[in-house]
Design goal:
- The chain has 251 residues and is mainly α.
- The chain has eight helices and no strands.
- Helix 1 runs antiparallel to helix 6.
- The radius of gyration is 18 Å and the shape is globular.
- Keywords: Membrane, Transmembrane, Transmembrane helix.
């Protein structure tokens, strides 16, 4: 690996870690109605998924076909099925979290979730973070502009998802959760430095990431109690869509 690539991606993974560790200090994000920055970040993340991640699933379709011996149509269906699986898994997890919090309130124990569910929630985000860190070094598209678009989109996604996790877990996120997901994104980057994962495995994880990010962004923006702001959300989506279309067009 070139030293410049190492230094650039090392700086980027440091920013990822800083978001996880210090999101609690960004007190302006807790404003009501929902901070425009959170809605803008959600729009960016959704735009990145639909204009970069989902189209690139076609690349992984070929890996599924060649390495698993599948017909092209079946490989394509399987890739998108994995993306759907990611969305369903995270939806099920978020639904379980809401039920646990409601039961806790009904029992007079406050707005809390069970400790075992807390670790499942953190572990699921840690798994996504491993892949995000790895893909800093092993994306399908090379080049500095593609890397910057990926970095900015993932940074803003982390701002949105970490804010939501911090609200879900309160004390647990500050004491334990943030350290686990920080270690995960750094570990993913270190794995990328040392090893190259087989293409079919990256295809599986990449598709799962697409579904997971889509659900995580929408669950932060859509509920009524979030008091989300549509204008910043659509603004983030349009701005980032324009940048990606320019990058794809070689401008």
């Amino acid at each position: 690996m070139a030293s410049s690539s190492f230094l650039v991606t090392a700086a980027m993974v440091t920013v990822f870690a800083a978001v996880h560790l210090f999101i609690g200090r960004l007190t302006f994000l807790s404003a009501a109605p929902r901070s425009a920055w959170l809605s803008f970040s959600g729009g960016v993340a959704v735009s990145y998924v639909f204009l970069h991640v989902l189209p690139d699933l076609g690349v992984h379709k070929r890996a599924f076909a060649s390495e698993l011996g599948l017909a092209e149509a079946m490989a394509e269906s399987m890739v998108y099925a994995v993306a759907l699986l990611g969305l369903v898994v995270f939806y099920g997890l978020e639904s379980t979290v809401r039920v646990s919090r409601a039961q806790s309130r009904a029992q007079g124990r406050g707005d809390r979730i069970g400790s075992e569910l807390e670790w499942i929630h953190v572990a699921s985000f840690a798994t996504l973070n491993l892949l995000v860190g790895y893909l800093l070094l092993h994306r399908d598209q090379s080049g500095l502009s593609s890397l910057i678009l990926y970095f900015v989109a993932m940074t803003l996604h982390f701002v949105t998802s970490d804010f939501g996790m911090r609200n879900d877990h309160v004390e647990a996120y500050q004491a334990r959760g943030r350290w686990v997901i920080t270690a995960a994104v750094v570990t993913g980057w270190l794995i990328g430095l040392a090893w190259t994962v087989p293409p079919v495995m990256i295809g599986f994880l990449f598709a799962f990431l697409a579904g997971g990010i889509t659900l995580n962004v929408l669950k932060e923006e859509l509920p009524e109690d979030r008091q989300s702001r549509f204008a910043p959300f659509i603004g983030g989506a349009l701005v980032y869509a324009s940048l990606m279309l320019l990058e794809r067009g070689g401008l």
